[in-house]
Structure formats: C-alpha cells, structure tokens
Design brief:
The complex is a heterodimer. By secondary structure, chain A is an alpha/beta fold. Chain A contains eleven helices and ten strands. Chain A is globular. Classes of the chains: A alpha/beta, B mainly alpha. The interface between A and B is medium-sized, with 31 and 28 residues.
C-alpha cells in the first residue's frame, strides 16, 4: 500500500487542514520479526482515526511508535512539526504534546486520583500545585466522576479508572490523544461510559488515534478508518466506505469474521 | 523484685504473641461469626484428632518444662540480679560522667519529641485495640503469673547466718511447697488481680465488648508507659551504683529516675498531642517534612553536639568557617538560580557536568595530596555539583527557583554548622571510651540506617540502570561486599581505614565502625530494593514516559515509592538485623551494651564472674527493640496497603 493511498480517502474539508502526524515508511523489527512494514499515513489536525485489524497486526506497535514508547528503525515520524529522533529533548517535547491512554489504564496506584492527574502538569508543565489540582477536579467533572477525587485507583471500577487515565492525559493539554485498546480490559457494562467520554472528546475537536475493536465507535465517530494486517496498512477510508464497500479481500474477510 | 518482674516479661511474651495472632484471626471473621466458647475452642484447635492431641500434650509439656526451668533459674537464690541493677548506668552509658547526664536526658527528650510528633502527624489508620483483646491480655498475664507461682520450686532453706543448709547428700534442703506458696503473697495478689480485671472486662462489659476499637494503639501504649513510670514514684526499684561501685543504701533508682522519666513521658505525650493538633491543619504536610528532616539530623546533633559539648574556637569560626559558609551559600545559590532557569538547555547541562568533573577531580587530588583544601570545602563543592546535575528538573517560575536556592542555603548552613561542631574537641571528659553501652548501640544502629538507606537506593538504581558504567560499578560494589564476611569489613574499617585516607583526614574508631556498618548494610539493602524495583510493572514506566516525566522524576515519584513499599518487609528485616549486629562492636574493642554485660560487669570485684544475669537482661532489651520494630512494620504495611487493590 503506498503513502498516497492511505491518505487519499478523506473528505475535502479535512483535506484542507494541516497534517499533524506524518508517518513515512516506518519499519520496526523485534529481533527477526518485522512488526511494521513501511507504514505510511498522515493524520490531519482534529481528525479522528480508528485503527482496526486482527491481533498481532501491528496497530498497537504503530501508535506506540508515535510517542516513542517503541523505537522505529527506519522511516520518519514527524509529530507537530518535530521529527522523532534519538534527541531526548525532542522526545520530551513530543510526549508532552501527545496524550496516551493504555489498555491496562496504568494509573499510579500509590497516588490519589487528583495526584495522578496533577503530577505531570506540576512537574512537566511547572504549574502551581493549587492550579493543577483545580484543573484536575475540572477534568474529573468532565469525565463524570468528580466525587472520586480523593480515592486511590485501586478503589475504583475499571471504567472509572480508565476515565481517570483519560483525564490524566488531558491534564497535559495535549494536541493529540492516542488510545491503545482503551476498552479491551473492561467489563462489558463499563465500556459505554469510556466510549462516551471519548466521543465527547472527538466532538470537541481533539486529534485522536484509536486502536480498538469497538466497531460501533469506529462507525459513529471516526473520520477515517485504517485497516492493518501483518504490519501493513491494507486499506483506509471513511467508515461508510470501509463498512459498506471494502475493496480488499483481507478487509472483507476481517469484516466477515467480526460483524 | 524489679528484675523478677522484668524477667516475667520475657517468659510470657510468647503467650501474649499467640493471643495477638488469635485475635487477628478473630478480627477477620467478625462480626457475623461469634468466637467459640473456650472449651469448644480448645477441642476444635488443640484436641481435634489423636495426632493433634499428642502434639498438644508433648509440646505443651515441653513448653511448661522450659518455662519452669527458666523461672527456677531466674528466681534461684544463686542469681545476683544486683549485678544488673547496680550496673544499670554502666550498661546504658558506660563511662559517660554522671555529672553530665543532663545531656543524655536532653538527647532522649529530643528523640521522644520527634517520636511523639511523628506519631501524632502520621496518617496511619491504626486499628487500635478492642476491649475484648485487652481483657484477653489481662487474663493471659494473670494466668502466666499464677502458672509461674505454681511452677517455681521452693527456695533452699538457709540457716540464721544465711548459709544454705545441706542434707546428707550435700543437696540443699528445700523449703516445703506450702511455705513457698504462702510466702508469695504479692505475686498471688498480682496474678489474681490481673485475672479478676480481665474476667470482669470480659463478662461485665457486654456491649462495649462488641466494639472493634475501644482505644487507639498509641493512647494505649502511652497509658501503659504512664503506669510503668508511675511505679517509679511509689516503688523503690532497688539501689544503683556508679561504674560498679557497691550499692549504697542512699542511692535508690526511685529517687534518681522518677523526675527525669516523668518528664520524658510528659514530653512524649505532649508532642503526640501537639502532633495530633497539627495533623488536622493545612500545615500538616510541611510540618511532616520538617519532622522527617529533623530525624535525619538527630544522630549528628545529639551525638556530636549535645553529648560531646564541643569546645568551639571562635577565632577560627569568624576567620574561616563563617566566611566559607557564606561564600558557598551565596556562590552556590547564584549558580543554582542560574541553572534552574527554564529553557537554559544544553548550556546548563554542560555547566553542571563541568562542575561535577571539577568536584571529582577535587577528591582525586585530595587522595594524591596535589593541593590542600579544607574537607568542608570539598564536601560542599561535591554537594553543589550533585545538586547542579539535577537542577534542570526544578526549573520553573522565579518563586520556585528561589525556594530551591533557599533549600540549598539551609542545607549548607546546617552542614557547615555540623562539621564545625564535629571537628571541635569535646569538653565532656570521659575516662575511657567517650560513650559506650546501649547508647553506642542505638547510635550505630541509627547512623547505619540513615546512611545505608539512601546509599542502598542509589546502588539498587545503579544496578538496574541502563547506563553501563553505573551498572558495572554498582554490581561490583554489591557483589564484593556481599562476598566478604561482615567481621572482616569491620576489622578493616576500625583498623586500616585511616591508612587509606588522604593526608590530614582522620576518622575516629567509632565513626569508622559506623561507616563500615553503613557501607555493608547498604549492599544488602540494595538487593532488597532491587527486588522491589523489579516488581514495578512496565506499564508504570510507560505511563510516566507518555506523560513526559524525566527519568529522575519518573524514578522519584513513580518507581521508587512503589518499589520501596514492596520492599518494606525485607527492609525492616535488614534494620532489625543491623540493630542486633551492633553487638559485633564488642569484637573490635568498642565497649557496647553486650560487652559491658559480658566482660565489664563480671570483672568487677563485687560481681566477679556474674555473667548470665547481664546477658539475659541484654537479650531482653534487644528483643523488646526488635519486636517493636517488627510490630511497627506490620502496621506500616497494613497502612500502605490501603491505596492498593
């Protein structure tokens, strides 16, 4: 799949915007195993991209490369005009612009919810503590759990924990949010509360890259769907195009298995 | 009488401990399941099967026999408990002059003030004790005292002039059992009283008994201490001597100890109450930091400043010490203010690495005698270089930067003050070693903990670091120290250390021994902490990285707090063994607690060869210390478990 194909199928309105993430032919090996094979795609500002694909297809690896939790071996990744290289300052700068939400929440178990959220703003953004804590409470309000502020992560349900994790990422006021299977570790009855928060975020104009298996979410919220398999981008397009009129056989097979 | 009571303390300890465990089990099943009535409990737990019955009988008998032997040994007329009683001062402070005892009380007062404040300020949610549990204790103690009365054999009969009467086989003639029982009036009274109080509580206070917490653990402990201290006012507790002098009828423990100990209790309680008051205010956090910081300083201030009473050379202070401190505060402060400027970038790193290089060269130069410099200047410079390396993490607004510089100024002022005090000669004129006895045990233990914890953390981080140089150095250090017997290290430090030091630098034996302890202990702590570091999940690192925390911030705020929490049980284990290992000081010639009991007391003409009594006493004191630490760590674990899953 070539570079231009992956970005072609976007609406005119989106196409007019600037690219905020540029991935150009990135390769990633784990030993002999090639997890990403020349992945190229551009993400526009305020675009919501959902990455689909069977497990082991490299979707998580790809978005983890974007804030350099994984290191790519060749190709270029440019985030908000800054290229990811070994320069630590670039990495720190990008990480403070890119929020990330993990499958296993990864909240800090020894800190209260408020401290979880305000830690990075205080120490990375150098905000005064009082202001950071006020902001943390506002964010908790926004994700719908203001009453949990003083609790510890272990005392919350999975859905609540994931919403705290989203609030924690938002506290850094990122321009981009990455979601790595945010609902996969949740009990079914808690998935909706997390998806609702993400939906609201998308409507608010956040640039988002979401790896998920939630087809409903993909259909409803995504501006574009990218389908990956075996470390390659197989097909990309609007949800309408993707779900109703897939072009590639592999995409058709995948859709037939899950729908 | 006093030592008899103290002795019982050890004998029943096990019973109490068992009661403790039983209670913990009961607490877990409350409130729905009521506990079994005593007889059914016995049947269910001790006589449930043939094997269980046999085991119960065999081990019960063995326990009773051991208890009886111990009691008969301790209460035998051959025991010279006066050896302990008269030498109490020697055991605790050795040759420290009694005219200067005020300094020891001040030292203890400082420690108790901090302890009280810490307890009052702590956020620990202690369970406290239920009335049921307290009544169990009363009954267990009462039962133990009465069992003791019944088990102790009658004393041997003596003639009018005090000689032991022997029968035809030269065995001492025993008094009859009846006489012996009748003679133990006070013990009967104590035992029965304890039982009655316990049973009354159990039976009489029906509804109150249901409450899980009747009294907090700390108020309860304070109450027990109050009872103990109050005995000094009405009980004679025997006479004391100084440096093994013969007991003088005029010198009673009651007279010499009642006022200071009462003052100590008041200080502890008052500090606790004050701590509780502060804990509910907004300033609790900063006071807590201040108290913790004071704890770090306590050994230095009390040992080198209060106990020694340094004779300060003021001419030197005005001409050298003060200007030097001011220069470091202003110069270093300016450098740090510059380095915390946001957006300084690469220049800042180059400056701080340059500073660090100069500081290292400074120390290398000292070892080869290249140029002279005061040690104080070298230490200050190294400190400045180390702080400069981390400075960019504290970059921020002007106010934050000023606070950072002020912290530096404070550390410098304290450091220079302490070094000046430590270097000045002591005015306290002790005949032999400066301090000895239990005092030295406590100081070496505290010194070791305070130094080995940070060092152990650094070593553990070094060993898990991604930078090869740190990893290799830490690994070599840890494996070398762990591969060498401790006693070798102790000998090395106490005997040869001065040979390896630069010119003009000397370390006295006690400090050298303390250093040996700290360096040795750090290697073991490092391995414990490394275990904790490995328990921190990968996701925690990823989440910190994704938020843009720097490596130092990630380590300090996320990784270490979690790793240390996991490491609490082994860390407390290491602390307890350090506390006990201080008894090895006796081998390198420092007159510690054990050595006073083992060689000093038996060498006195009055108590020639009386050793076992002192050793048993030493055991008891060590046991009380170690057991308290272990109990405290259990509470700490329970407390820290609150936020977890």
């Amino acid at each position: 799949m070539s570079f231009s194909d992956a970005t072609a199928a976007v609406s005119d309105e989106l196409a007019a915007r600037d690219d905020i993430i540029v991935c150009d032919g990135i390769d990633k090996w784990y030993g002999d195993f090639q997890a990403l094979k020349g992945v190229s795609a551009n993400i526009k500002e305020q675009e919501v991209v959902v990455v689909l694909g069977p497990s082991g297809s490299g979707k998580s690896t790809w978005i983890r490369c974007i804030n350099r939790l994984e290191q790519h071996q060749s190709g270029r990744i440019i985030v908000d005009g800054v290229e990811l290289t070994n320069d630590t300052r670039n990495i720190e700068k990008i990480r403070s612009e890119v929020g990330m939400v993990f499958q296993q929440f990864n909240l800090f178990p020894h800190l209260s919810v408020v401290d979880n959220i305000s830690l990075a703003p205080i120490w990375v953004r150098k905000r005064p503590r009082a202001e950071a804590e006020r902001q943390a409470r506002e964010l908790l309000e926004r994700v719908g759990i203001p009453e949990q502020a003083e609790k510890f992560p272990g005392q919350l349900s999975g859905g609540q924990q994931q919403r705290v994790a989203i609030a924690r990422a938002l506290a850094m006021e990122p321009r981009i949010m990455l979601f790595d299977e945010p609902t996969s570790a949740l009990d079914p009855e808690m998935i909706k509360e997390v998806l609702d928060v993400m939906k609201e975020l998308a409507l608010g104009g956040m640039t988002m890259m979401v790896v998920t298996h939630e087809m409903g979410f993909a259909r409803e919220v995504a501006d574009r769907i990218i389908f990956m398999e075996s470390g390659e981008i197989v097909e990309a397009g609007t949800p309408e195009h993707f779900f109703t009129n897939p072009q590639e056989d592999r995409t058709k097979l995948f859709l037939s298995q899950i729908l | 009488m006093s030592s008899e009571l103290e002795h019982l303390d050890g004998g029943t300890a096990e019973l109490i401990a068992n009661a403790d465990d039983r209670e913990a089990e009961e607490a877990a099943s409350r409130p729905d399941e009521p506990s079994l009535p005593p007889l059914e409990w016995l049947r269910a737990n001790l006589f449930s099967s043939v094997l269980n019955t046999i085991l119960t009988i065999v081990f019960g008998l063995a326990g009773v026999l051991a208890f009886q032997r111990l009691l008969n040994w301790a209460f035998s007329h051959e025991r010279e408990w006066d050896a302990v009683r008269v030498n109490m001062r020697a055991l605790f402070t050795f040759t420290y002059p009694s005219s200067q005892y005020g300094r020891i009380w001040i030292t203890l007062g400082i420690a108790l003030t901090l302890a009280g404040l810490s307890l009052g300020l702590s956020r620990m949610v202690g369970q406290g004790f239920s009335l049921k549990r307290i009544s169990t204790w009363f009954m267990a103690w009462g039962g133990a005292v009465i069992a003791g009365i019944l088990l102790v054999q009658p004393h041997a009969k003596r003639s009018a002039n005090g000689e032991v009467l022997l029968d035809a086989d030269f065995e001492p003639v025993r008094e009859s059992f009846g006489t012996a029982m009748a003679d133990r009036g006070w013990w009967w009274l104590i035992g029965v009283l304890l039982l009655v109080v316990g049973v009354t509580m159990w039976v009489g206070l029906g509804d109150l008994k249901r409450r899980t917490t009747f009294i907090g653990a700390i108020p309860f402990t304070l109450g027990v201490l109050a009872v103990l201290v109050s005995t000094l006012w009405w009980f004679h507790w025997g006479n004391y001597g100084e440096q093994g002098d013969i007991i003088e009828p005029g010198r009673t423990v009651k007279d010499s100890a009642k006022l200071p100990w009462t003052a100590m209790w008041v200080v502890l309680t008052a500090a606790y109450i004050v701590g509780r008051q502060i804990a509910v205010t907004d300033r609790a956090g900063s006071v807590r930091v201040l108290v913790n910081f004071s704890w770090l300083l306590t050994p230095f201030v009390t040992f080198w400043v209060i106990l020694r009473d340094p004779a300060i050379d003021y001419a030197h202070v005005w001409s050298t010490d003060l200007p030097m401190a001011v220069a470091f505060i202003i110069g270093g402060g300016a450098v740090l203010f510059l380095l915390t400027k946001p957006g300084l970038g690469e220049v800042g790193r180059i400056i701080s690495i340059g500073l660090f290089g100069v500081a290292i060269f400074n120390w290398v130069a000292a070892f080869f005698g290249i140029y002279p410099m005061l040690q104080k200047a070298r230490i200050s410079f190294l400190l400045l270089a180390l702080i400069a390396l981390a400075a960019h993490n504290f970059a921020g607004e002007r106010k934050q930067r000023l606070r950072f510089v002020l912290a530096w100024a404070g550390v410098m002022a304290i450091l220079h003050y302490l070094v000046t005090m430590i270097n000045a000669p002591s005015t306290v004129d002790a005949p032999d070693e400066f301090v000895g006895g239990f005092l030295v045990t406590v100081y070496i233990a505290a010194f070791t903990m305070i130094f080995s914890f940070p060092l152990g953390i650094l070593l553990a981080l070094g060993r898990t670091s991604t930078l090869p140089i740190f990893r290799v150095l830490s690994t070599i250090y840890i494996e070398t120290v762990r591969g060498v017997p401790f006693i070798t290290i102790l000998f090395f430090f106490s005997t040869f250390l001065n040979i390896f030091l630069p010119d003009g630098m000397e370390i006295e034996q006690l400090a050298a021994a303390g250093l040996g302890f700290a360096l040795f202990s750090a290697a073991y702590l490092a391995e414990n902490i490394r275990g904790g570091l490995q328990a921190v999940r990968r996701g925690q690192y990823e989440a910190s990285d994704a938020l843009g925390l720097t490596t130092v911030q990630r380590t300090g705020f996320i990784v270490l707090p979690q790793a240390l929490r996991v490491s609490i049980p082994p860390l407390v284990g290491a602390t307890i063994s350090t506390f006990k290992e201080t008894s090895l000081l006796a081998i390198i010639g420092i007159i510690d607690f054990l050595r006073v009991a083992n060689s000093v007391v038996p060498g006195q003409t009055v108590f020639l060869g009386v050793r076992m009594e002192g050793l048993l006493f030493v055991c008891m004191i060590y046991w009380v210390g170690a057991y308290s630490m272990s109990k405290f760590s259990q509470r700490l674990e329970r407390h820290l478990g609150v936020g977890e899953h």
